[in-house]
Amino acid sequence: MVEFTVLEMESCCDFVEVFDSYGGRKMAQLRMGSLERNIVYVSTSSQIYVRFFSDSSITKKGFTATTQLAMESLDRSCGVRIPVTSTPSELVSTNYPGDYPPNYNCSWTLVAPEGLRAGITFSFIQMESCCDYILLADGTDQRQITRLNLEEINEALTFESTTSELTVTLVTDETQNRQGFMAAIFLVSEQRYPHTGSCGHTSTAMETPNFFHSPNYPHDYNPNSDCHWLLVASEQYRELQLRVVDLRVEDCCDYIEVRDGRNQNAPVLARLNRRPSNPFTSTHGALYLRLVSDSGNHYRGFNATYMLEPLDRRCGVTVPATVRPSQLKSENYPENYANDVTCSWVIVAPQDQKVQLTITDMEIEACCDYLELFDGEDQRLLRKISFDFISEDLIFTSSTNKLTVRFFTDASVTKRGFMSHFQAVQTSTLPVDSCGSTVTVGDFYVEFTSPNYPNNYPPNSDCHWLLLSPDSSRQVTLDLSDARFEPCCDFLEIRDGRNIESPLLVRVENQLPTRRLYMSTGGALYLHFWSDSSGGYRGFTASHKLEEPEVLPYPEQCYSTMRAFARGRTAINVNEIMSCTTLGVNARCLKISATGTINTILTAGIPGRMVFGTCISSIACTNSSCMLLQSMLQQMNASFQFNMTSCTVSCCGSDLCNSETAPIEGKKSL
After folding, report:
1. For residue 628, what is the enclosing H or E element?
2. In a shared domain, residues 520 and 463
3. Are residues 208 and 242 located together in one domain of the fold?
């Protein structure tokens, strides 16, 4: 192997020739004034022959070269990945120096150490120029550097990658097979940013603009150019923008092609021979450019800038969600966020889709700072999140096409905040045991449960459901048929309204003794299920449907009654008229009649009867039971006790209809 490090000759007349051996095949004839980079030649035998010629005119320094044994031939079969080291090695086409096979497509990937680049110098090429070719591609994204379809070469051709990988592909047809190629592969020791005027490179788009241009700009580009550029966003889930500042090419034959993706098979955004007025924006994090020129006229080419697409993530903005993930992060991330921040973002997907948010990193002050997620127009709280750190991604999906993200910090400790991405996902039916949803209630009962029901719910659950009526004249009915929670710590709350601040109808903290019905008064019910970090129980199961309000008269007055009878005497006698106007159309008169035994200071075990009456709301009347009478008795004088043996509960909807002589409506027994 010989490596030329210095070369300074009279380029018109003096030259160096390199042969594969003495009397063997000529590998190169070097006629150049100077070297831009070292050139390496590797022989196919144990010899290499160098011949220097000069004429009788001008003389210069000549050349300097070093020789060394080349590495032993390595595996060069198709598809292999070849490590590139500081010692150059050989790469030849299959069967070289014999003819390559017909109908052949063979690739080799040269892999340099991380942070360095790979280079290749072709010292010999012989191919069928019409139909066979060598393709060089840069990086894992396979950006094409060049396509060589040459009959032969008179001087060495050197190419370098702009990344740590360089792929060499030989493609042949079925006719006229030739010797192929011989090349040396080497390590490019310096890691430099690709020259802005090089014939193609792979570059990373940052927050600030970077310029690049065609070769020789603002002077004329080269004829027969085929240059490829790959521009990639520096951050995941970010897009990039390309703006062509200046463009002048031969109208008939030369052009710039812009593609939305990472290679020359990506969708075409434009084929340009004049400057466009608008920038190009990627949809998958990369743009691919190609400059093609013929052998005719050529002009100054192009000058362009590229950068990450600016994201408007100011507090309070509404951001559209698409199928392509987009980034959302706390201000200053990964640096610390500020104190006393309250910032919200509204993410909106197309009408028939939902929003999926994936939190990939979080570090906040767990005691005091938090992230809240709200679902839909009604702002149903989906989750309140506060973690010192997370060990895996947290994924949340709205049940509507709108998700609101709210970040709150206090005045004390600050940390790096959060990083997330969001996207629109296709609407699908949520499982019945999902942790919360926003539901438009229909005419038929639909079941839903706590997570994992009837198995134990998970710890640290914080689930919210919003049940909505589509018609303000109709109410939502909830049938809670089973509930069992850890008595000390876990609970289910049902509220009459659209959010967690609505009036509380019930809080179940242990076990539901009997099946219960609950009805909204304003077209919505809100459920909140919470569990701590300890053991779980089976949770709850419930159903919801729309209920038509009963078309009943409603009382303005009812009897407020507490009467007890024993042996023909009246032991307690309270029977007054009370106003029910504060309950409006929801007013009902309640009457509870019970039999049992009465105990007083003077007597014990005397058979007797009790009657209780009052004004009550229609939904409370639906859930009332004889336990209400027992509760009232416990508040009375301890000298009077009533042991109930049977009981009847009734509700009615006209004035004073709960008197002892009035007919009974809606009667139910103990």
Report:
1. helix 627-634
2. yes
3. yes
Q: What are phi and psi of 89, to 5 degrees?
A: -140, 180
Residues 617 and 527 both lie in one domain:
no
Residue 346 burial (CB < 10 Å; 0-12/13-18/19+)?
A: middle
Q: Could you give the number of structural domains in the chain?
A: 6
Cα separations in angstroms, 109 against 29, 96, 115, 404, 491? 28, 18, 16, 47, 61
Look at 455 and 553; give whichever has higher pLDDT. Answer: 455
- Decide which of 22, 43, 67 is a domain's last residue: 67
User: Domain check: are 408 and 504 in the same one?
Assistant: no
* Residue-range definition of the domain harbouring residue 583: 557-669
Q: Phi and psi (nearest 5°) for 577? A: -95, 130
Higher pLDDT residue, 592 or 638? 592
Token pair listed for 380: 């149903």
343 and 401 co-located in one domain: yes
What CATH number should be reported for the domain holding residue 416? Answer: 2.60.120.290
Distance from C-alpha of 496 to C-alpha of 342, rounded to nearest angstrom: 28
Cα–Cα distance measured from residue 290 to residue 301, given in angstroms and rounded to the nearest whole number: 12
Supply the DSSP string of 307-376, one letter for each residue: EEPP----TT-EEE--SS-EEEE-TTTTSPPPSS-EEEEEEE--TTEEEEEEEEEEE--TTT-EEEEEET
Q: Which residue is it, tokens 């051709």?
A: 157
| Arithmetic mean of pLDDT, 561-580 | 85
Lookup: tokens for 666: 């809606």
Q: Are 478 and 518 in contact (CB under 8 A)?
A: yes
